[in-house]
Structure formats: C-alpha cells, structure tokens
Amino acid sequence: MTPHSVPQFLTELLAARSPSGYETEAQAVFDRHVKPAADVYAKDALGNRIATLNTKGDPVLMLAGHLDELGLIITYVNNDGFLYFDTIGGHDRIVISGRRVIIQTEHGPIFGVTGKRAVHLMDESDRKKVPERHEMWIDIGVRSKKEALARVSIGDVATYDHELQLLNGSVATARAFDNKVGAYIAGETLIRLAKAKRKPAAKVVAVGTAQEEIGVRGATTATYAVDPHIAVAIDVGHATDHPDCDNRKFGETKLGAGPIICRGANINPHIYRQLVAAAKRAKVPYQLEADPRPTGTDARAIQMARGGVATGLISVPLRYMHTPSEVVDLEDVERCVRLLVEFALALNPGDYAHW
Ligand SMILES: [Zn+2]
Questions:
Q1: How many angstroms does the Cα of residue 62 sit away from the middle of ligand 1?
Q2: Contact criterion met (CB below 8 Å) for 47 and 339
Q3: Parallel, antiparallel or unpaired: strands 260-263 and 287-290
Q4: What is the pTM of this model?
Q5: Model confidence pLDDT, tens digit, residues 150-173
Q6: Rounded to an integer, what distance in angstroms lies between the CA atom of residue 238 and that of residue 297?
C-alpha cells in the first residue's frame, strides 16, 4: 500500500509547538501558507491570525480553527534541578508521566522526560492512584537548580515529543490533531476559494484562533473584530467507535465516516441545514452529533459575540482526545475542506440566517 500523502501545510502545523498563549510556531506556519492567498491579512494582540478574501463580499463568513494545543508550563525548579509544572488545557493526569517532552526556551528547544516514582516503590494503595500534578516533574538531565535555570526559565512551556505517524492508509496519529486539523481546514478552505474559478459572493475570513483550550479566548476577540453574519467553527469531535465508548452515553460517531455536523442550542438551525446541504452537493459523507449546551469549542464564544452570530460547528472525528496519541482519518480532514468550500460558494448576499 502506498503511504497516504499528508498536505505540507498540515504537516508543518502538526510539527509546530503551540501551547495556549505560546502559539508563535503555529502562527508562523499559518502566515506562510494562508497569507499569500488572502486579500487582507491581520494579526492581533491575542495572537489570532485573520485572513480575508473578497473584502467587499456579503454576507461575512468567518471560519475559525484554533492554533493552540495542550502543554505544560514550568512553575518551579527544585534544588536538584527537577522542573515542576502546571497543565495548560484539559490533561488526563494518568498519561503525563513517562513521556519525552520538548521545552521551548529562549535558547531554543531542549529535551526532557516526565518522571514519577517507579511502580516497584509504590505500596498497594499508591498503585491504584492517579498521580497528583505535584507528584510529577520534568527531568532535563541536570544536577542543580542553577544548572537548570541556565537552560530554562519559569514560564517556559513544554509539549509531548509525539510527531505525526501514519498508522494504516489514511489513519494517522499525532499529538495535537486537536486542533491543528481545524486550523488547517479553515486556512485551506480560504486557499482553495482563492484559487477557484467560481468566486464566492461572501466575504470569507479564515481565522486561526489563539487560546481556545483555556476558554475560547482568541475566538472572543477575533469575532468582535471580524463582525461576521455567519461563522463556522472547525474542531475535533469524539469518535466513539473504540472499545470503551458506550453509544448510549456518548452517541455514535466513527473515524472515517466524514465530518461531524453539530446540532443543538449553540448551532443556528439554518446554518446546520446549509452545512448538510453542502455535504450532499459535495458528495461528502457526514454524521451528526447533538449537544444541548454551549459546545466546548470556539462556537461557544462566536455565537455570543456582539449581537449574536449565526454559528455552525463541524468536527473531525478523533479518538483519544487530549492524549499524546490522538488518532484521525486524514480523509475526514479533506472532506471538511470540500464541505466548507461548497458551503461558502452557496452563500448569497443578504443571507444572514436570522430566524
Ligand atoms: Zn481540545
């Protein structure tokens, strides 16, 4: 079997280390690939990247995918040079230890490992426990606080050293598919629209948002600035097709079965219907999820911006969210781009999804 090809833009986003608030590397990749296709390209104080195509178009459509990812932030160095950390984003503490990590420092990246007490040295009750955050540390191979602080600073951040790897065909694993795939889809949709023979009536604004994982903060300011009529957030969604997901609790969504289109109070019903219609026209398989609350995505902030925005949400099905080894089917990523290109092209002037 020939290896599945991975788009260069996505490969570079996945290699970029970008914990919330420290998105510089991912911003640079977005700049490199999306800026040349945009009519206007802006940056803001939060770290958002805002690419606009067809500046006089109507309605204003915003596509948002977040550039940030989970990470660890150094909070304390002990006398022996071990680094203590706090978590950036929603970590499962059971998977933090025993990892190789890369710390971004002023002097460039340095390598470390996350340590904790060995299983042999635990008593029976310790073995059943999930380690507390302060019971783990990063070991960078130094012998003293002084030596450690010559290399790293309080406030430096670390990510897992887990890079993109194809598993089988188009199924791949990486850290931070959440949400490099969403940022890729937002940017790539704009790039394809810029190249398309047919021009959209809409003004299309692709935003690589900052700080989603710690409270949809970039989307909050970006939506204010862009002031869209219509927006679609692109994120990852739980594929519930592995051995430990009860469909009665978590619904039924599968890897490789196409974009997940969300319904619920966070979603404007017209936008939902137009996303489904676009999927059908583009011959893209899709699946549905229902969420009765504000979703845990940028869609939450976007919908509530200013006087309210007609918001939709599509998600790439993903297994093992927020672990160092997230799994997606890259075909689903490409299908999201095709769906959104079709959706954007179908918007007409005055189409504001008021209801
Ligand atoms: Zn996330």
A1: 20
A2: no
A3: parallel
A4: 0.97
A5: 999 999 999 999 999 999 999 999
A6: 13
